[in-house]
Amino acid sequence: MIIWGKEKTSVREVSMKNKTLLWLIPLILLLLLIPLAVPSALPAAGAEDLPLWETVELANPHPDPVPLDEKPPFAPDEAGWLPDEQGYVDGTIAVRLEKRVVNNTKVYITFVQIADPSQLRTASYKPYPQQAEIRATKLASREKAVVALNADWFVSNGGFGIIYRNGKLLRDGKRFSTFDAMIIDTNGDFHLFQNPSPEDFEPWQGKIMHSFCFGPALVKDGVLLPQTDQNLGRGLLKKAQRQALCQMGPLQYLIVTCEGPEQSEGGGLTNAEMAQLCYDLGAQEAYNMDGGSSTWLVLNGQKINARMTVRPITDIVYFITAEPPAAEN
Fold first, then answer.
1. How many other C-beta atoms can be found within 10 angstroms of the C-beta atom of residue 258?
2. How far, in Å, CA of 32 to CA of 28, rounded?
């Protein structure tokens, strides 16, 4: 089993008692002063302090695909959960959660690596076009998700855009309004479209696993994207809770979640700040999902971000294990 961790440091025994006391006294005083100097348990992060992506060698890198038109068969292995909400590891999926403070804002940085594209899935509470809402924690538990995030609330965006979910075409909207689009193909790769049209989807027929009509696109082909005038009127200049879904490499993903001014005075990120954060983290593709009080990051069936802010939603993006329980192996 591969588990992310930090190197352990050993404590050298000192034989001379007096020297030990002289060394310990200033250290103890320093430790006592740290809580006064640091307002949060999360480290303040500039680009140089952000966690790095680490490729994981999965123990079961070629599992049987999980058919997209079937319910996920396997629940996460209880032995796979890491302590203190650090993530999850089994032979087919590795999830690592890091926490930082960026611009006075709590940020949750979730790295995900899977063995097969079918482990990246979407789910709605009720079949389209119903707009029934549910807590993301309940929907994630129903779908046996290891980790989940809110999607784009496509059922309520006025019928714009071409929407595929789990390989099935749900809506063939010919207009996209000011929304950007994202296709996740059957290899699990992201493709972003600014000012999209139906023609952008034609080369991908038969190869679309999921598609979204929301955005905007934040990072495309490793390039940080400026915000266009048409998108700035959608509250993107406001500091708020936000969520971005990113691709780092083949079957390697990143969820970036931030809290907002409701959780801390002056907190929240603008859309440009979220885009910069995704870029600094090394995202090759980054796409903005629904935000505000609809921002949910769910790990092990629990809401991780902004725990006191709960708003029901209609749909999620989530990642599953493709590994049977140990007793079935």
1. 30
2. 6
Task: Print pLDDT tens along the chain (329 aa).
Answer: 444 543 333 333 434 344 444 444 444 444 443 333 333 446 788 877 999 999 999 999 999 999 999 999 999 999 999 999 999 999 999 999 999 999 999 999 999 999 999 999 999 999 999 999 999 999 999 999 999 999 999 998 889 999 999 999 999 999 999 999 999 999 999 999 999 999 999 999 999 999 999 999 999 999 999 977 666 666 889 999 999 999 999 999 999 999 999 998 889 999 999 999 999 999 999 999 999 999 999 999 999 999 998 899 999 999 999 999 875 55
Q: Give residue limits of the domains in the chain.
A: 42-328
Backbone angles phi, psi at 59, to 5 degrees: -75, -25
DSSP-assigned letter for residue 134? B
Nearest to 89 by CA among 149, 7, 3, 147: 3
pTM for the predicted model, two decimal places: 0.87
Look up residue 128 and give its two tokens.
Answer: 């389209």
Q: Where are the alpha helices (DSSP H) in 109-253?
A: 136-142, 229-232
8 Å CB contact between 188 and 167 = no
Place of tokens 């409701």: 262
In the numeric block, the tokens 């307002």 are attached to: 39
> DSSP code of 288?
E
Half-sphere exposure of 188 (CA within 13 A, CB side): 24
SS3 of 223, please? Answer: strand
What tokens appear for 171 in the block? 């809506």
User: How many angstroms separate the Cα of 298 from the Cα of each of 100, 108, 129, 172?
Assistant: 17, 11, 24, 30
Two structure tokens written together for 327: 């007793």
Residue 42 and residue 19: Cα distance in Å, rounded?
33
SS3 category, 292: helix
